[in-house]
Amino acid sequence: MKKSLSAVIAVMVAVTMMGCASSSKKSQSEAEAEGANASESTVLVEMVSVKGGSFSMGSESGESDEYPVHGASVGSFKMSKTEVTQAAYKKIMKKNPSYFVGENLPVEKVSWYDAVVFCNKLSAYEGLTPCYTSGGTTDTSKWAAQAAVTCNFNANGYRLPTEAEWEYAARGGTAKESFLYAGSDSIDEVAWYEANSENKTHEVGTKNPNSLGLFDMSGNVWEWCWDYYSEDFYRGGSQKDTKGPSSGEKRVLRGGSRSNSYGDGSSVCRVTNRNYANPSERYYLNGFRVVTAD
């Protein structure tokens, strides 16, 4: 009887240990799955709410394409706190075209077309409705190279800011900041630019933000906007929720850090300064940030 009882106890202990091991494995598997899910749910682009309003757009003391100062208004929207990073771009696009490499550096050497493709793919990744259509589809894999792109501004997905949205946000939105640069009259407080950047990009968010909590609106990389560029577009007078000219050859860039035509680069960092480039151009200081509907 004692031998039989011992055998039964041994079997029970073995079964119990097997159950514990199984439970342990299951818990580990669940933990790994939870870790994977947590990784997948990581916020790739942190957004800041920008309440819509009216403002005076342009400058009377800047370049010829910055005047006349005119009334402009935009609706509410959300804008990425920083320029899109290389880490976020790689996650969505599975590649990194940047000249200066670093996970938290702004992605650059991206064309305007690259930027709108990223927007649609990020929208799909997050289950949002893509804004951009080309050839009748939002599926960027079916787009012809450099074909015409249209934007559905009512969709809830990601898109590039309009030029008016960009300047309004750089100025601080409803705060109606009168600073020369985004958040300050002292450029070194808020911008990486030609005089302090050592001719390279820097990690996003390492200078002071403006009153909305937006970083690097002045300096670091130039940022693509939706609009076609027109030198005399401002001469059309007040603009309500403008999306820019209806056609053109170049697209607008804003907020860049350097230009060979200026001394130390500080002038190009002004919130009213405008630049432009061919939408297929991939330059090592051209990047972007994104917006969504509020």
Layout of helices and strands, plus pairs?
Layout: H1 2-40, E1 47-50, E2 53-57, E3 70-74, E4 77-80, H2 86-93, H3 112-125, E5 132-133, E6 150-151, H4 163-171, H5 187-190, E7 222-228, E8 239-240, E9 251-254, E10 275-277, E11 286-287, E12 291-293
Parallel strand pairs: 3-8, 7-11
Antiparallel strand pairs: 1-4, 2-3, 4-12, 5-6, 7-9, 9-10
Any low-confidence stretches, pLDDT <50, length ≥5? 1-41
CA distance, first residue to last residue: 77 Å
How many strand units? 12
Helix content: 25-40%
Main sheet summary: 4 strands, mixed
Instruction: Write the element-wise H/E pattern from the N-terminal end onward.
Output: HEEEEHHEEHHEEEEEE
Name the structural class. Answer: alpha+beta
Strand content: 5-15%
Q: What's the helix count?
A: 5
Q: In what order do the strands lie side by side in the largest sheet? A: 10-9-7-11
Describe it.
The protein has 294 residues and is an alpha+beta fold. It is built from 5 helices and 12 strands. The protein has helices spanning 2-40, 86-93, 112-125, 163-171, 187-190; strands spanning 47-50, 53-57, 70-74, 77-80, 132-133, 150-151, 222-228, 239-240, 251-254, 275-277, 286-287, 291-293. Strands 10-9-7-11 form a 4-stranded mixed β-sheet. The chain has a 3-stranded antiparallel β-sheet with strand order 1-4-12, with no helix packed on it. Strands 2-3-8 form a 3-stranded mixed β-sheet, with helices on one face. It is globular, with a radius of gyration of 25 Å.
